[in-house]
Amino acid sequence: MNRREIAQDLDRKDPLSHFKKEFYHPENEIYLDGNSLGKLPLKAKEKMTMVMQEQWGKHLIRSWNEHWLDLPKRLASKLAQLLNAKDHEILVGESTSVNLYKVAQALIQSGHYPKQFLSDALNFPTDNYILEGICRENALAKPIYIHYSTDLKADLNLLKNQISAHPGVVCLSLVSYKSAYYYPMKALNLHAKENNSIIIWDLSHAVGAVAIDLKETQTLVAIGCTYKYLNGGPGSPAFMYIEETLIPDLLSPIQGWFGHAKPFDFSQDYLPAAGIEKFDAGTPTVLSLAAMEAGIDITLAAGIKNIRAKSITLTNALIKEIETQLTPLGYSLESPKEAIERGSHVTISHHESWRICQCLLHGNEKRPKIIPDFRPPHYIRLGIAPLYIGHDDLWLTVERLKEIVLEKEYEHYSQIRPTVT
Ligand SMILES: Cc1ncc(COP(=O)(O)O)c(C=O)c1O
After folding, report:
1. Which of 15, 35, 186, 380 is at 20 to 30 A from 111, Cα to Cα?
2. Residues 6 or more apart from 291 whose CB is under 8 A from it?
């Protein structure tokens, strides 16, 4: 068998391969950007039509009681199952940025931890912007940013030393957006605890791709989005997790009526709900909530451990091809080589990265379009979403990356970049 036949044979034997048909696939296209925006589950499309026609169209206001008020709770329960949390420890709604604002502000104001934020250079920019805003609001010193020798991998000794030296509220992305570096969650949670600190984990690039066990890792607070590997749809609602014993000590900085103990009493006095619902603020975004359920259902049906196992198999195979076939052509691997330190995207670089991405996106008469994404200054991220990517997709991607450089195909494209890359 040649290399492509081997890849196709592996796909035939893949126990998760049948999940691919749960999604909509444009023709002649390989989608390697599920780490930015996941695919459309076919059931989400059906569900949206039903919700719009029946619930919104026909039942209108009655649908709140009949269907909509329970929707965020039902989704929270499914996420709790996925993350090994309790149903009442998860709240679904708003964006990751807003959830981070709420929990970070609540932790600072709780008085339980030193009023000092720590973050690192691998964290997603919005997280750091949010922390800085909270510092400004509370007249606190700026967050301490930990810089490593590279922005692709954390130096764990340095990180731990900084937490010991500057205890407080730490914010880290469990899987880093640039390189997919995957932090050892439990070891860091324990270290934080020993040092009078707490870590807020941003799970955005991890949830649905790596097996997260919030109890086993002794995680206290987390936030994350659902539009990447969970295929929840563009801008789909995010979630927060607060460990149950911590909930009574925290107050939401946004006192909206949906966080009230009895919102429909319309009282003039604010009384926060007893549970995590106190972090709710306004009316749930029903259409987005309805759209996101199908993606979570598929993930639960496939099983996160199986998804993670397939992700490791695929990313290991891809890295082997990068090292043997692409490195001699000027590409470099920018993600950790060891699976234990890596989420589900593989980042490579090349001095012509931007124009190579343009070639991938356009395809040619012999090859499909391939959709990666580009992150400055020169990173190409290849998102390996195990629910719909297989070995043959990787074979085609590597062949295409080779051919673009060997034939200098990138010379046909401009260096100018649009806003969203
Ligand atoms: C790690 C991480 N956190 C936060 C965000 C942004 O979240 P949102 O725009 O949903 O607030 C992203 C977006 O890609 C992300 O990757």
Report:
1. 186
2. 44, 47, 48, 232, 233, 236
